[in-house]
Amino acid sequence: MAEEPIDSFRFVLMQDLLPVGLAMMARFRNDGPGKVVEFFNQSTNPFEELRVEGERDAKIIRDRLDQVSPGLGNPVMEVNVTVDQPVSELSDLDEEDSLKQFLHRLEKRLDILEKQLQIGSEDKEESQRDSRQSL
Question: Cα torsion for 33, 37, 39, 42, to the nearest 10°?
Answer without folding.
Answer: -160
